[in-house]
Design brief:
By secondary structure, the protein is of the alpha/beta class. It contains ten helices and seven strands.
Amino acid sequence: MEYIVLPDGSFRFDRPDAMAGFARARGIRLFGHALVWYAQTPDAFVGLDERRASFGQAYDRYITAVVGRYRGQAVGWDVVNEAVRDDGSALRDHLWSQRLGEIDHMVRAFHVAHAADPDVPLFINDYNLESNPAKLDQYQRLIERLLKAGAPLTGIGCQTHCNADLPSGALTRTINALARFGLQVHVSEMDVSLVRAGGWFVSREEKQAAQARLYAEAITAFAALPAAQQFAFTIWGVRDPESWLVRENRSDAPLLFDAQGRPKATFRAIETALRA
């Protein structure tokens, strides 16, 4: 949204089209992320002239334009992203919820996206579910509310941004908790930070070993789901220097490949887990 929606309410698709063309030319799967995110509030919506179009009409037009443009190519969409407060106490309050309703803006987005591409899986997506039980509980209650309201929600995203000190078993419990809805599950943005891990490790090597174990646990838990619920397992980046975490701290190394593109212990841990 922050790129596509221009201040006058028109849309620009040059860069999204370039990415879609790159994927199409190489047979790469294309996933849409994300249609509605609390942190994106384009000027065109903030200063909307209600005499020309209502807020709801502009909202629908945007979702329809984006999803419809990549109909038949996108294999899924994150329709609503990060709807739960960090502490898990409630849902976030933002422009979309204020103007269209706390739950109604989400239900509406799912229906409009479904109308634009009836065959594409539609996801909700959030983070810190494995490390914050209160947030995981709130997320599950939100999913229940959306389903009860008739939203065509077909998948659940678990971002899986972890720190190397995450206790063993937390990832498995989280993935299994989300799988109970019977919907498709997407481990959607996985990386494991070394720098953010607590200080009980004796050495960086111990952090790296714990990091590799978490990757192995995540892929093992995902692979144990019924095949119909295994949507995708996505790593949030390829080489370490390109990670958002390395932009925060240059000493971090959260991904599967190093700066030269060589596979790390994290890659080998996933490989071994998959072979098993």
